[in-house]
Amino acid sequence: DAKTTQPNSMESNEEEPVHLPCNHSTISGTDYIHWYRQLPSQGPEYVIHGLTSNVNNRMASLAIAEDRKSSTLILHRATLRDAAVYYCILSTGGGADGLTFGKGTHLIIQP
Amino acid sequence: DTAVSQTPKYLVTQMGNDKSIKCEQNLGHDTMYWYKQDSKKFLKIMFSYNNKELIINETVPNRFSPKSPDKAHLNLHINSLELGDSAVYFCASSQSSWGPPYEQYFGPGTRLTVT
């Protein structure tokens, strides 16, 4: 599986935007970029995914570099509820292979 | 209504016992998964089923046996429990395992403690 690299932790203030980076220099042409998050004592939760173009949904935006070797998850206005571990994951379509979670980024939100 | 539910939420048992964890999804999804999250918080896929048929069986000891009576249920039975089996087990489901990626919906987890 193609590997992703994320910072171990990041800190941000409430009501400010947060940019979570992910490097995936060995991404293949068929790999989708997925983001999931895990709040304390809960199961992972889907955030967003994309292939080549930037994507927006009600939770976040995903900005994908032109060469696809990196991406950034953008939380437009962080709340305390956004404090979680965020995982950047690559997978090739479908779900037959399951998801391979790395260490993720522990996002801390300061009030 | 809970989309993906697991029972029990907590399970404490002794080494050598046999136990089961149940999972149900009410989303009408075709594919279900079991993941294990160890004490270091790494999440790993164990099994996936599509329409009651096994698709993935990662390197998991034979003591672990998933069973899917219908596509809404995927249970995990564990024989001869060992200390190293202590972890949080998550069930998940997705619309399909083929074609473009579909988001996976995870259950709340079952914390298994083997003493």
Describe the structure in your own words:
- Chain A is globular, with a radius of gyration of 13 Å.
- With 111 residues, chain A is an all-beta fold.
- Helices cover 0% and strands 45% of the residues of chain A.
- The mean pLDDT of chain A is 93.
- In chain A, strands 1-9-8-3-4 form a 5-stranded mixed sheet, with no helix packed on it.
- Chain B is mainly beta.
- In chain B, 0% of the residues lie in helices and 55% in strands.
- Chain B is built from no helices and 11 strands.
- Chain B has strands at residues 4-7, 10-13, 19-25, 31-37, 43-50, 53-57, 64-70, 73-78, 87-94, 105-106, 110-114.
- In chain B, the strands form 2 sheets. In chain B, strands 2, 4, 5, 6, 9, 10 and 11 form a 7-stranded mixed sheet that branches.
- In chain B, a hairpin with a 2-residue loop joins strand 7 and strand 8 (73-78).
- Chain B is globular and about 40 Å long.
- The chains are: A mainly beta (111), B mainly beta (115).
- The A-B interface holds A 32, 34, 36, 38, 41-46, 49, 85, 87, 91, 93-101, 103 and B 4, 31, 33, 35, 41-45, 48, 50, 55-56, 58, 90, 92, 94, 96-109.
